[in-house]
């Protein structure tokens, strides 16, 4: 039988195989490390964003009425200064009312194509909060209109004294894709007659209303978010506060002059028996504060004048 000779690869073949194998291994290792690094970066980036994305106390969702950017904290301008904002327009069907007589206020919220809006989110138990006040900051009313299927809102309204009144519609629109836009729009109403403006009362931290003594502690500052704590006392001590519109109190602040609007909601629970808000005032000036609170199913409003230097 012929001798059997073992076939052995020559050196050049071995070298080529080693080079190719090394290249393949390097590519695979690089791909795997790249995926590990990419996955780690995404996870870390997401965690960092979540940790950094915080809101100062008293801003959204506790603070309504301010223009875009309010949830970024101090310095935000108040809302209600315009009849149109964020692509929506407040359209009252009638703007003149006889002084001292109840009438129906009817209005629509219209989109950029002037179509009536009919989808609103329920915020603090209501889809629409309507604030009405005379331009000298008297006659404050907090109303809740009802909407017809065609998007027309209506509510009984009495403008007690002649003058120009400001109506604020505070609402959140729900878009077709489910997105929500919070907006506050303002429009003037008129009660013809002799207008006798009243001066604002002097600043004070305590007042009485309907048998209750209401006082607050805190020192609001322009462009800063600070705590404001209200105590409501009855004859026998602390009043037994009830939730009104889902909270123990609602605070509206209106700026004298342009009537800029802020609607602030408190901490979800009482703090040492008191109602605690976080208030951001956008600039110096005089403000009128209106605190709504409920005791024995009755809603009361305490008013204060606040000067921001």
Can you walk through the features of this model?
The chain is mainly beta and 309 residues long. It has one helix and 19 strands. It has one helix spanning 11-52; strands at 63-64, 84-85, 88-92, 103-110, 128-134, 141-143, 146-147, 152-157, 163-174, 180-191, 206-209, 212-217, 225-234, 237-238, 250-255, 261-264, 275-280, 285-295, 298-308. The strands form four sheets. The protein has a five-stranded antiparallel β-sheet, with no helix packed on it. A five-stranded antiparallel β-sheet has the order 2-3-4-8-7, with no helix packed on it. It is globular and about 50 Å long.
Give a topology summary.
Elements lengths: L10 H42 L10 E2 L19 E2 L2 E5 L10 E8 L17 E7 L6 E3 L2 E2 L4 E6 L5 E12 L5 E12 L14 E4 L2 E6 L7 E10 L2 E2 L11 E6 L5 E4 L10 E6 L4 E11 L2 E11 L1
Antiparallel strand pairs: 1-16, 2-3, 3-4, 4-8, 5-6, 5-9, 7-8, 9-10, 11-12, 12-13, 13-14, 13-17, 15-16, 15-18, 18-19
Characteristics of this structure?
309 residues, 1 helix, mainly beta, five-stranded antiparallel sheet, globular
Distance between the termini: 115 Å
Principal-axes shape call: globular
Compressed to H and E, one letter per element, the order equals HEEEEEEEEEEEEEEEEEEE
Class based on secondary structure composition and strand pairing: mainly beta
* Largest sheet, spatial ordering of strands: 1-16-15-18-19
Look at the structure and give the mean pLDDT: 82
Cα-based radius of gyration, to the nearest Å: 31 Å
Q: Spans with pLDDT under 50 lasting ≥5 residues? A: 1-9, 11-62, 67-75
* Strands, total number: 19
> How many helices in DSSP terms?
1
* Largest beta-sheet characterization: 5 strands, antiparallel
Beta-strand residue fraction: 35-45%
Helix content: 10-25%
């Amino acid at each position: 039988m012929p001798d059997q000779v073992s076939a052995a690869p020559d050196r050049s073949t071995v070298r080529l195989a080693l080079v190719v194998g090394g290249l393949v291994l390097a590519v695979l290792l690089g791909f795997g490390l790249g995926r590990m690094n990419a996955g780690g970066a995404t996870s870390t980036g997401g965690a960092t964003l979540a940790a950094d994305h915080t809101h100062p106390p008293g801003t959204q969702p506790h603070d309504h009425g301010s223009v875009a950017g309010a949830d970024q904290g101090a310095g935000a301008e108040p809302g209600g200064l315009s009849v149109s904002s964020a692509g929506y327009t407040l359209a009252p069907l009638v703007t003149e009312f006889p002084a001292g007589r109840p009438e129906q206020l009817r209005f629509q919220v219209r989109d950029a194509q002037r179509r009536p809006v009919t989808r609103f989110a329920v915020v603090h138990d209501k889809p629409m909060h309507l604030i009405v006040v005379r331009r000298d900051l008297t006659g404050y009313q907090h109303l809740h209109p009802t909407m017809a299927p065609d998007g027309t809102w209506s509510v009984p309204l009495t403008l007690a004294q002649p003058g120009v009144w400001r109506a604020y519609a505070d609402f959140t629109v729900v878009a077709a894709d489910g997105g929500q836009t919070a907006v506050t729009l303002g429009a003037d109403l008129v009660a013809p007659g002799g207008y006798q403006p009243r001066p604002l009362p002097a600043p004070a931290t305590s007042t009485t209303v309907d048998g209750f003594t209401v006082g607050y502690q805190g020192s609001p500052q322009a462009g800063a978010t600070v705590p404001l704590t209200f105590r409501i006392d009855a004859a026998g001590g602390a009043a037994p506060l009830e939730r009104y519109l889902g909270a123990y109190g609602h605070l509206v602040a209106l700026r004298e002059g342009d009537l800029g609007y802020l609607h602030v909601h408190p901490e979800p629970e009482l703090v040492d028996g008191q109602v605690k808000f976080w208030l951001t005032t956008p600039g110096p000036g005089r403000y009128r504060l209106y605190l709504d609170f409920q005791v024995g199913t009755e809603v009361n409003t305490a008013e204060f004048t606040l000067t921001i230097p």
